[in-house]
């Protein structure tokens, strides 16, 4: 497990949703430690960009506002003059597309035939029955928006940065802070929450004003920078809209590893394998991470997968990003 400076920041693994706070200078790296949190899943290390801050840095559980300082960093011999941080948005709801797929999966479970083995539901072993009976609490309006926990993620991140670099984050410097964000609502909202957290740090007990009225101004939207992948012609023509380039992603989704996991999940959920596909498996897996990150619960969706299965969506993401 890598350990290093910036453990309090998460590496922006997917480019899809970044928010940059241009401030001081620090490299973000990802590390996962054993978590003492009882609801954390054994699958948590495989949640990628959907990993909770608490699972990357378990020190946050007892004290989410206390900074963690690498002993080798800033030993008192150097003075930080600038910080540039690339920050991923806070915890969010699934997208409408993910929610639609989850609903499809839920309907599939509810439509299971009599061979679905409902009798064993009382013993707690029929995961499919547990999931079919569990109301789907995700709704279309949620569509990838930042959740309240996500606002808190950002406020607490701001407080940790301010405690870690007190000279940079002094009151007088607040006007020099520049936040650049993508136009995605969850990223803009994350920037706002970050600034509000910081403002409250300077003005304890007061209600923050509108970010437009803060000395540093509101987060500035710059999609050309923050969603560069949507604006890069070469990437769009040579990769994103190029079936040949995407061949490996498709090959993986229909390959033997995916077939194995489809077989396993079909048996666990007692649904026909032909009704399942790689996208549905992925959304089921993500629901385990969403339920944990948003609701703080250990989802029954986590019981569908073991650690070997968890590595599969991870590899799919890697094959996609490795392009
Ligand atoms: C599409 O991808 C393939 C494989 O990476 C590459 O050889 C080809 O040049 C790409 N096509 C375009 C139009 O860029």
From TrEMBL:
Xref: Pfam families: His_Phos_2
EC numbers on record: 3.1.3.62, 3.1.3.80
Subcellular localization, as worded in the UniProt entry: Membrane
Signal peptide: 1-30
Major localization listed first in the record, in broad terms: membrane
Single GO molecular function: inositol phosphate phosphatase activity
Xref: Gene3D superfamilies: Phosphoglycerate mutase-like
Recorded GO CC terms: membrane
Domain of life according to the entry: Eukaryota
Catalytic EC class: hydrolase
Listed InterPro entries: His_Pase_clade-2, His_PPase_superfam
UniProt keyword list: Hydrolase, Membrane, Signal
Reactions catalysed according to its record: 1D-myo-inositol hexakisphosphate + H2O = 1D-myo-inositol 1,2,4,5,6-pentakisphosphate + phosphate; (2R)-2,3-bisphosphoglycerate + H2O = (2R)-2-phosphoglycerate + phosphate; 1D-myo-inositol 1,2,4,5,6-pentakisphosphate + H2O = 1D-myo-inositol 1,2,5,6-tetrakisphosphate + phosphate; 1D-myo-inositol 1,2,5,6-tetrakisphosphate + H2O = 1D-myo-inositol 1,2,6-trisphosphate + phosphate
UniProt record similarity statement: Belongs to the histidine acid phosphatase family. MINPP1 subfamily.
Designated name of the protein: Multiple inositol polyphosphate phosphatase 1
Organism: Trichechus manatus latirostris (Florida manatee)
């Amino acid at each position: 497990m890598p350990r290093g400076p910036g453990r309090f920041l998460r590496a922006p693994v997917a480019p899809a949703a970044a928010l940059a706070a241009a401030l001081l200078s620090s490299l973000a790296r990802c590390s996962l430690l054993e978590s003492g949190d009882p609801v954390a899943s054994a699958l948590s290390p495989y949640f990628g960009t959907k990993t909770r801050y608490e699972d990357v840095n378990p020190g946050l559980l007892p004290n989410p506002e206390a900074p963690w300082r690498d002993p080798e960093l800033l030993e008192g011999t150097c003075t930080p003059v600038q910080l540039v941080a690339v920050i991923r948005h806070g915890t969010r709801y699934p997208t409408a597309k993910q929610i639609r797929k989850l609903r499809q999966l839920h309907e599939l479970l509810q439509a299971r035939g009599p061979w679905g083995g409902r009798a064993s539901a009382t013993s707690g072993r029929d995961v499919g029955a547990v999931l079919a009976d569990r109301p789907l609490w995700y709704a279309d309006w949620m569509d990838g928006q930042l959740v309240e926990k996500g606002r808190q993620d950002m406020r607490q991140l701001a407080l940790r940065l301010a405690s870690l670099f007190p000279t940079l984050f002094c009151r007088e410097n607040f006007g020099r802070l520049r936040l650049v964000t993508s136009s995605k609502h969850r990223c803009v909202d994350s920037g706002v929450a970050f600034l509000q957290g910081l403002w409250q740090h300077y003005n304890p007990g007061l209600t923050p004003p509108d970010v437009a009225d803060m000395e540093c101004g509101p987060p500035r939207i710059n999609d050309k920078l923050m969603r560069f992948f949507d604006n890069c012609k070469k990437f769009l023509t040579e990769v994103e809209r190029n079936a040949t380039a995407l061949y490996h992603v498709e090959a993986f989704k229909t390959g033997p590893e995916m077939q194995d996991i489809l077989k396993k999940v079909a048996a666990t959920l007692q649904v026909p394998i032909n009704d399942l596909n790689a996208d549905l498996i992925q959304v089921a897996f993500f629901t385990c991470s969403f339920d944990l990150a948003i609701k703080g619960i250990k989802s029954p969706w986590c019981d569908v997968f073991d650690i070997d299965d968890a590595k599969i969506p991870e590899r799919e993401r890697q094959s996609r990003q490795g392009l």
